[in-house]
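hey m, so remember when u said the tokens were messed up on ur end? i reran from scratch. heres the input so u can diff it against urs
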Amino acid sequence: MNISERIQQVRSSLKLSRKAFGEVLGVSGDVINNIEGNRLKRPEQKEPIYKLICQKFNVSYDWLMTGQGEMFEELPEALIDELAIQYKLDDIDKEIIHAYLELTDEEREAIKKYLRKLSGK
């Protein structure tokens, strides 16, 4: 399986259309179609998109590039559990952390802007 097929597998497993998948990445559905169809003249130019796929969809970069390992990386449960112990976080606190990690960049910025406004900074 090549990288184009793995990208298609990621998108399919997330049950997203090419258009919806592309919107998350900031590209058109046509770009996703070309990537999945292995119709790139210079695939190395798509490295930023490959990295963005990994970041936005929690995909293992090693798996995407080589097919080795698991497709998806799990959220850092162990790290969150360590923080919960260290900072005496309850289940609601942990849910807030999970929810924040799943937000888009724009949603995170909106929350930061709101918190800055509350703190007067």
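this time it looks ok to me. The helical segments are 3-13, 18-25, 29-36, 47-57, 61-66, 77-86, 91-101, 105-119. if urs says something different then somethings off w ur setup not the seq
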